[in-house]
Fold this sequence. Notes:
extended, single chain
Amino acid sequence: xxxxxxxxxxxxxxxxxxxxxxxxxxxxxxxxxxxxxxxxxxxxxxxxxxxxxxxxxxxxxxxxxxxxxxxxxxxxxxxxxxxxxxxxxxxxxxxxxx
Length: 98
């Protein structure tokens, strides 16, 4: 087919208005936004976990949930979102019941 007969612009899909990202509720992401902020939070979480296990001699079974909660708060999750995530979503629980 010759290139002259093709239309100049063809919409591939109906464009929907982009949903706004929810505002951060707090945490370290207020200081460093985006991917760099999440990577910073992850690196600090790993460092905190290693410190608690190696230097503070806290059992890993206790240190891991404590650091997970701290990382969630640093990443900007609210307390209700955080504990809803720790409890698990109903969709995940439904899969394991069958």
